[in-house]
Amino acid sequence: MVNVIGLGYIGLPTALMMASHGVEVTGTDYNKDLVAMLNAGRTTFKEEGLDGLFADAVRAGIRFTTEYQKCDIYIVSVPTPYDKVDKKIDPSYVVAACRTVLEVAPEGAVLVIESTVSPNTIDRFVRPLLEEANRQDVSLVHAPERIIPGNMVYELLHNNRTIGADDPEVGERVAKLYASFCQGEIAITDIRTAEMTKVVENTYRAVNIAFANELAKVCRIGGMDVYEVIRIANKHPRVNILQPGPGVGGHCIPVDPWFLVGDYPETANFIRLALQTNFSMPEYVLRRAHEAMEEHGIDDPSRVGIYGLTYKEDVDDVRESPTLQLLEVQAEHLCGAPMRVYDPWVERDEVPSQVHSMDEFLDGLDMVIVMVGHSEVKGKPEAFGDRILIDPRNVMGNGANVCKL
Ligand SMILES: NC(=O)c1ccc[n+]([C@@H]2O[C@H](COP(=O)([O-])OP(=O)(O)OC[C@H]3O[C@@H](n4cnc5c(N)ncnc54)[C@H](O)[C@@H]3O)[C@@H](O)[C@H]2O)c1
Known about the structure:
Blueprint: E1 2-5, H1 11-19, E2 25-28, H2 32-39, H3 50-59, E3 63-65, E4 73-76, H4 92-104, E5 110-113, H5 121-132, E6 139-142, H6 152-158, E7 161-165, H7 168-178, E8 186-189, H8 191-222, H9 226-233, H10 256-263, H11 269-279, H12 281-295, E9 304-307, H13 322-332, E10 340-342, E11 354-355, H14 358-362, E12 367-370, E13 388-390, E14 402-403
Parallel strand pairs: 1-2, 1-4, 2-3, 4-5, 5-6, 7-8, 9-10, 9-12, 10-11, 12-13, 13-14
Antiparallel strand pairs: 6-7
The structure holds nicotinamide-adenine-dinucleotide.
Residues 5-11, 28-31, 34, 77-80, 93, 96-97, 115-116, 145, 147, 149, 250-252 line the site of nicotinamide-adenine-dinucleotide.
């Protein structure tokens, strides 16, 4: 039996996927409300294909509880934020979960950390727990996750994976478990390499996006179309520049690269600069909106609204979202009342200036900053009537009323 610990954006679909592929799974989360919701037959977030997967897993007998179970394999998928001051990983959730696992795990159990961790985290923070508890019989494994919200179910099935283990035989055993559903290649390596690989993958994307963001700024000053420049440059067989945007959000790309900056502050300068560049984008969008207000003679900031609160399109996750960052910048610079915000994917109240229908949102607005290209509006500028659109994601076409980054 497998006990998945932490039933959030990663743990829940992983548990469901295993259960619906014939593995006996119990999902554990210390959040009672979340477990109650799952036991009442409801999923806890919106994701393409998740409800179908949930129904399959329930039919296959998955159980949800707040209790840690006695079982052969534990998969820990709890948050790994970074300390905003020293930029190092905050391993406290992983440590707490592993400590509880060691209290209940039978002899010879395997403890798989799926949470993203910086290189050395398992050696520094988890291995000592085994020594403290005198539980050297427990095997440690790191199996980081690569799925992208919005396409999680497909990617769980098709992505390649990495398994890092002290003992290659244990690595093979865990690889076999993941191969119950994963059709991608599964690379087996040691734990530190697996830790570093995951952080490097997200750092690569952060740096590439920062490059695109810097190009957007350069092209704006130079009067060039950054999208056309990137489109043509990417025709080169060895060039693949990502797209500029209003900032980077979510639980991974704006977070994980800081682990390297925190652990290697003298060396990881280029990575630090990339993160700072990405972090500058919400303020850049705000400035761009002010310029456009002047160009179009809009002098009342309450006539400008923000469409999109999530960190990417077609998900309901708002963590580290560029819109939240933009609202913070606006508050810091005291530039007017917080802008009105609407996001069809976010029903709960996340910010005080949020409204819950497109009609209420558009009422009285002259300008909309389209921070997220949800399918509801992507390629459909008419969804906003004839209002001026600030389009930092380049999803609104090239109409006369559309202002790019
Ligand atoms: N969200 C993503 O897109 C993504 C992608 C790849 C990797 N990751 C990594 O996966 C890990 C989990 O991320 P997430 O997005 O699923 O987080 P999340 O916040 O959505 O879920 C974590 C869950 O763990 C539970 N939890 C925390 N401590 C616990 C404990 N001691 N015992 C039981 N339950 C506990 C919380 O209640 C929560 O439900 C992180 O390390 C993250 O970096 C996330």
